[in-house]
Amino acid sequence: AQSVTQLDSQVPVFEEAPVELRCNYSSSVSVYLFWYVQYPNQGLQLLLKYLSGSTLVKGINGFEAEFNKSQTSFHLRKPSVHISDTAEYFCALRRDTGRRALTFGSGTRLQVQP
Amino acid sequence: KAGVTQTPRYLIKTRGQQVTLSCSPISGHRSVSWYQQTPGQGLQFLFEYFSETQRNKGNFPGRFSGRQFSNSRSEMNVSTLELGDSALYLCASSIGTSRGPQETQYFGPGTRLLVL
């Protein structure tokens, strides 16, 4: 079975500060990794994804993530956050087995304070 | 291009009733997946449909069912509602190619179901 662990349920940070949201995964087969963001009363929006190739992946809104196979991690980073980045962030994986089902972590609530 | 649409957006039902939720995927997308989001269990996969066939099912009781129509629109049905079925139900669509696991799933805004 596969699993995704988001180590922090909440991350408070001041505006313009850097932030890192941590994600670790477990799987016995190759995986593809995703970060989604959910704003209040909305669905999920894809921030970025890792399929193969370069381990540093750049996404929308200035976010990036680094895939580390040896540490089974896929941490999300942003060098300078804005108030508008306040949202719930979900790390997810999909196994390379032909199916599209995503396995999600429990989410990290990013709270950007002025 | 219009995004994924879900109707209704909000729904209140009582225990024992049944409910049907609808999802219209992005034009040209052939794969539709459903997820349940609750504060306690988080986001959990319900099922995936492709070309009117259920391709994958999550660990949910048989009260949860779905179908997909020839135009790729999908419905999910929950019978004999329980209080624990209160959740945000999210639909996601993707193009539907042979590289399925690599595809991006685009999510709709969800249907918020409250069971009283």
Overall shape of chain B: globular
Largest interface here, residues on each chain? Answer: A-B, 27 and 26 residues
Oligomer: heterodimer
**End-to-end span of chain A in angstroms?**
41 Å
Residue stretches of chain B low in confidence (pLDDT < 50, at least 5 long) are none
The overall pLDDT average of chain B reads 94
Low-confidence stretches of chain A at least 5 residues in length (pLDDT < 50)? none
Largest β sheet strand count, sense and barrel closure of chain A: 6 strands, mixed
By DSSP (H or I, 4+ residues per run), the number of helices of chain B equals 0
Q: Looking at the structure, what is the overall shape of chain A?
A: globular
Radius of gyration of chain B: 13 Å
Could you characterize the architecture of this molecule?
The complex is a heterodimer of chains A (114) and B (116). By secondary structure, chain A is mostly beta strands. Chain A is 0% helix and 53% strand. In chain A, the strands form three sheets. In chain A, strands 2, 5, 6, 10, 11 and 12 form a six-stranded mixed β-sheet that branches. Chain A has a four-stranded antiparallel β-sheet with strand order 3-9-8-7, with no helix packed on it. A two-stranded antiparallel sheet of chain A has the order 1-4. In chain A, strand 5 (31-38) and strand 6 (44-50) form a beta hairpin. Chain A is globular. The model of chain A has no long low-confidence stretch (mean pLDDT 93). With 116 residues, chain B is mostly beta strands. Chain B is 0% helix and 52% strand. Chain B has no helices and eleven strands. In chain B, a hairpin with a 5-residue loop joins strand 7 (64-68) and strand 8. The model of chain B has no long low-confidence stretch (mean pLDDT 94). At the A-B interface, strand 5, strand 6, strand 10 and strand 11 of A face strand 4, strand 5, strand 9 and strand 10 of B.
